[in-house]
């Protein structure tokens, strides 16, 4: 197994991609620690991925992340992989249409994507430095390279994590710690389907027409799945990528070439 006897921490390990990441890392032999803002969320993930350790933690709070790092070391003795996948739900709103509440939500999104990723690295990476090995994988997005109307919160938060990864790769490389990104595009699931149905209703066309139009813009003619994204993370987390740092793997079906 690719991660046999390694310890992996996944932030943002709630429903969807975070849970899929935890499951795949566990199946590949890792002892997995899952973290999310609310106890109920992270405990559900742990219940679905047997053998995992659940630690409620808000990645934008220094004391929460410091406690997360300490708990991992106290309970498991080391940390080999950190996957930063935390990001709040994003709603579509053009900047000039934002209310005061929207502006606060924008700030929270960017804090989670940028500052939250920074804090997790700040308190977990020192243990990797001490053991002279480790892999950090930050979940960014196709939107970290190309902005879209109404998605400035998502784009700015993910872009912050993207460039932070480059800085950390340079800082931590001399200690044998690798830092990379996986940048998903659209991911198949209910959220994407709901958005396509909204667009279909607005245009007065069937859902299937919107889906076919969008998929036709992808070189592979299919939408990536959570499993596709998780397997890219697995590669970067494993020793198969031992000479890879500062890199980004795009998982978007060929929707955007970089």
UniProtKB/TrEMBL annotation:
Domain of life of the organism encoding this protein: Bacteria
The UniProt family comment states: Belongs to the short-chain dehydrogenases/reductases (SDR) family.
Q: What GO biological process, any one, is recorded here?
A: fatty acid elongation
**GO molecular function terms attached to this record:** oxidoreductase activity, acting on the CH-OH group of donors, NAD or NADP as acceptor
**Alphabetically ordered keywords of this record:** Oxidoreductase
Q: Which Gene3D superfamilies match?
A: NAD(P)-binding Rossmann-like Domain
Check the record and name the PROSITE patterns matching this protein.
Answer: ADH_SHORT
Protein name per UniProt: NAD(P)-dependent dehydrogenase (Short-subunit alcohol dehydrogenase family)
